[in-house]
Amino acid sequence: MNRILRRNREILVRLFEGEKKQKMKVPKLVLSQLGFNFKYITGIYYNREGKRYHYVYDLAWMEFSDQEILIIRKKK
Questions:
Q1: Residues 14-50, buried b or exposed e (16+ Cβ, 10 A)?
Q2: For the segment 39-50, what is each residue's pLDDT rounded down to a tens digit?
């Protein structure tokens, strides 16, 4: 299980390479093609509006739409 979680985190980190942004939208298909497993997370957080964020260690993602995923990394 931890191997899958680490792989998911590596995929998310790789998408942020060279980016200064803390948030980005990516097509869900791209994550799937890179081998991201949506079933493995380390936690869930609901914000005030009831939106659900899935955590993979220090990164989070949420379904922005049926075809897009919003990825968020904590500020350093």
A1: ebeeeeeeeeeebebeebeeeebeeebbeeeeeeeee
A2: 999 999 999 999
